[in-house]
Design a protein that fits this description.
Order of helices and strands: HHEEEEEEHEEHHHE
Strand order of the largest sheet: 5-4-8-9
Distance between the termini: 45 Å
Helix content: 25-40%
Radius of gyration: 17 Å
Structural class: alpha+beta
Length: 191
């Protein structure tokens, strides 16, 4: 929330709580509860958005909790699988979670080898193009899908996309623009 010192502190407290919970073996719901509790205790007027996820590298089972972000995108066989990961977002972590009447929802999807998952903030899709229009979800997804179809590696796709967003806005973003993309390749592990 915001772009000041308090938002930086919110990120630090959230990451510390997340890492601590992960190290103690917390499952996704407990991990998010730990972040909620830490923010409520140390920064009660702040909140943090995130997608917290867990990928089983052996099976391709992806589990996630969306705390206030756009739904992740699934790219399979060089095509966007429309709606594959569309789920309503839970409230952000911290203060808003205290007012939620339902527990956090864990979502699951079975990935296939070669699937790419794209997670992003709304600052990416709401970024402006050179002509002043928004990039938008459709244009953003199309860019990534075309790059995958052309055989471009995920890191290069993201590097070029981020540079295009920055160039279009003269290196001055109006909002945070965070992108994470990963590709699952099944590599059987010895028993």
């Amino acid at each position: 929330m915001g772009h000041d010192l308090a938002s930086g502190l919110t990120s630090v407290v959230s990451l510390a709580a997340c890492r601590n919970a992960r190290r103690t073996g917390a499952d996704l719901p407990e991990l998010v509860e730990c972040v909620d509790a830490a923010l409520s205790k140390w920064l009660p007027d702040q909140f943090c958005t995130a997608v917290v996820s867990q990928l089983n590298l052996n099976t391709g089972k992806l589990r996630w909790i969306n705390c206030g972000h756009p739904a992740p995108l699934l790219i399979r066989d060089h095509r966007l699988v429309a709606g594959a990961m569309d789920r309503d977002a839970d409230p952000p972590m911290g203060m808003p979670a205290a007012f939620a009447s339902t527990p956090r929802r864990v979502h699951e999807i079975a990935l296939e080898p070669g699937d790419r998952v794209l997670m992003f903030t709304d600052g990416v899709t709401e970024a402006r193009t050179m002509d002043g229009g928004e990039i938008g979800l459709e244009r953003f997804a199309d860019y990534v899908v075309r790059a995958a179809a052309a055989g471009e590696l995920a890191p290069e796709t993201l590097r070029r996309l981020i540079q295009a967003i920055l160039d279009a806005q003269e290196n001055r973003l109006r909002d945070d623009a965070t992108i994470l993309m990963f590709e699952w390749r099944h590599t059987p592990r010895p028993a």
